[in-house]
Amino acid sequence: MIASVTLSIVNGCFPFLTLWISKELIDEVTRFIQSDTWEYVALVWLLIGQFSITVLSSLSKNIKEYLDKQMVYKVEFDVQHMILANTSSVPVMYFDLAEYHNHLQRISGGGSRFLSPVRTMIDMFEAALSLCSYAAFLIVIHWSLLLVSLLATIPIFLVQAKYSQLRYRLHVKQNPVAREAEYYKYLLQDRTSAKEIRLFGLASFFLNRWIEKFVQNASETLRLERRQQGAEVGMEAVSSFFYMGMAVALIWLARTTKMSIGDFIAIIQAIQGTQGTLNRISTLLAKLYEEKLYIKDFYQFFEIKEPRIEINKGQEPFPTPIQRGITFENVSFRYIHGDRDVLSNVSFHINPQEKIAIIGQNGSGKTTLIKCLMGLYPPLHGQIKIDGKNIYDIDQKQLLSNITVIFQDFIRYHLTVRENIAVGDIKRMDDWERIQAVAKVSGTDSFIQQFALGYETPLGRLLVDGEDLSGGQWQKIALARALFRDSQVVILDEPTASLDPIAEMEIFQNFKLLADKKIAIFISHRMAASRMADRIIVMKEGKIVEMGTHEELMELRQEYYHMYTMQAQWFSAESEYTKEVVGWRN
Ligand SMILES: Nc1ncnc2c1ncn2[C@@H]1O[C@H](COP(=O)(O)OP(=O)(O)OP(=O)(O)O)[C@@H](O)[C@H]1O
Questions:
Q1: pTM for the complete prediction?
Q2: Predicted confidence band at 124 (pLDDT cuts at 50, 70, 90)?
Q3: How far is the CA of 95 from the centre of ligand 1 (A)?
């Protein structure tokens, strides 16, 4: 930036130098033509001088242009890097906060916000230079001329500063509406939503929503703009009034003193020049003020501290191998904006190498329980312990690397098959043998062999030649990824929801093998799968209502029994359900 500013000052000198050397050259050429002698040394030097100035001027201009571009990239890089470093490391709970997303969107304008004040300051520097020369001229005539010129600018500056602040406040207020508009735009542009938008004929519905939100923001902005323009006209009238007073005073001076017409015109021009420059400085100052607000907002984003979000600062190592197991002690949890406990007083213990199934109706808190175990969501009350150590005392990296989870909404990475599996343990990216082994166990290998590029086939539609997979095939890839990571605890949240019955059967047959010597937790709505577990936890409305083996729970004849028999009845020709459903056909 310093180099760029220096070069703009240097560039400003070149026109004077060019003018001067052209004048000298013309004089020298005239003298040379009229002279009888061949004295050409001075002429040659002047030509060399002109050549050098042209080259140097071009060099300096182009270096400055390059430096400016480099500055844009550097600032853009730093800004984006800071944002990405933040979004990829803040506690996951921040993503549940709408304010976080609003703030993120406000600052995502990029590096231009940072470069703009730099340009404004350079402009101000130039304006200040010309102001100095006008001011010097006016002070020589009378100091009051400069004072009145300064006073005349104050109203305009005040209006501009006020509206800069109003514009910033409006921007903050409009942010949620802008995000909403963005969402409707996304729905209308996104590949995955394209089918359903057409199926339900939602295009004009979302388009109208987008128009509504867009127009709402645009009309508010324009209303403010109109008010500002009106206020500026008023303030300019006030300034002109000052200047008119000065003009009258000058006319009176011209009449009563010996001021020449030339002096009078020069003073009027100096006053006009001062007025113009001061107005420009005032506009630039207001702009700088507005830019300051945005930059402050940018830095505030990185200082957000949500008191309700506990940061995991544990240092202790993860117990390896786990010897006593995992314990939930009276754990209660509530989402940050929630008004009820999603988990309440949950207590249970999992022994080393035990296989646990968690079942329960939709929304009963199964996934939330897993998110708490991973240390992503701190309990409101109670503790989660592994071998007696509170998970918040364990180093977070170690905790996460010892727990593998496949969530229902796992990521479908637009990477190659090999990379999709290997991201499960990025350090072992090149462990070919293991990649192939887990691909075989998860059932991925059989369909990968059909692709010409095999494991190097890009998946998804982002890359050229990318292959898209079916829901079940993606799920197999996710399963392979989880297996690739050799952790002590494996958690599968609805692992087989998209799998066909044969694949599901295979996965469950392999499950004991896959999770051998590990603690395994799986959440499933397929009641039959829960029979594989050593113990079953039944959840209802955030509480554990039953716990035991399949046989024990069946004997209890309560929640589990009802859920199990209800599903089993679908397959029994004698059951009431089957008779009713078959009855629909008749
Ligand atoms: N990020 C969140 N913010 C606020 N509430 C949430 C959030 N995630 C889940 N919930 C609420 O917490 C409750 C439990 O959700 P959870 O996902 O744990 O249920 P689940 O038992 O896994 O359900 P399913 O069987 O449908 O997957 C639900 O009522 C849901 O509305």
A1: 0.76
A2: confident
A3: 15
Q: What is the CA(416)–ligand 1 centre distance, in A?
A: 32
Contact status, residue 474 vs residue 412, Cβ threshold 8 Å: yes
Q: Ligand 1 within 6 A of 338 CB?
A: yes
Q: Out of 241-250, 333-342, 530-539, pick the least confident.
A: 241-250
Alpha-carbon distance 497 to 470, whole Å? 13
Ligand 1 pocket member 367 (CB < 6 A): yes
Q: How many Å lie between the centroid of ligand 1 and the Cα of residue 370?
A: 11
Closest to 371 measured CA to CA, from 328, 320, 411, 413:
328
- Give yes or no for a contact between 539 and 368, defined as CB atoms under 8 angstroms apart: no
138 has pLDDT over 90:
no
CA distance 486 to 59: 59
- At residue 347, the pLDDT reads 95
Q: What is the pLDDT of residues 141-152, one digit of tens each?
A: 778 778 888 888
**Calpha distance 420→460 (Å, rounded):** 11
Atom of ligand 1 nearest to the CA of 364: 21
Place of tokens 């590990």: 518
Please state, rounded to an integer, the average pLDDT across all residues of the chain. 86
DSSP letters of 48-90? Answer: HHHHHHHHHHHHHHHHHHHHHHHHHHHHHHHHHHHHHHHHTTS
Q: Name beta bridge partners: 349.
A: 327
User: What whole-number distance in Å separates Cα of residue 421 and Cα of residue 482?
Assistant: 8
360 lines ligand 1 (CB under 6 A): yes
When computed from its CA atoms, the radius of gyration of the chain, rounded to whole angstroms, is: 37
Can you tell me whether residue 542 is helix, strand or coil? coil
Banded pLDDT at 272 (limits 50, 70, 90): confident
The ipTM estimated for the assembled molecules is 0.97
Residue nearest to atom 27 of ligand 1 (CA): 362
- Concatenating the DSSP letter of every residue in 557-571 gives TSHHHHHHHHHHHTT
Q: What is the mean pLDDT of residues 307-315?
A: 74
* Torsion angle, alpha carbons of 441, 446, 451, 457, to 10: -10
Q: Give the mean pLDDT of 335-362.
A: 91
Q: What is the distance in A from the centroid of ligand 1 to the CA of 343?
A: 10
227 CA to centre of ligand 1 in angstroms: 47
> Is the CB of residue 364 below 6 angstroms from any atom belonging to ligand 1?
yes
* pLDDT tens digits for range 149-164: 888 888 888 888 899 8
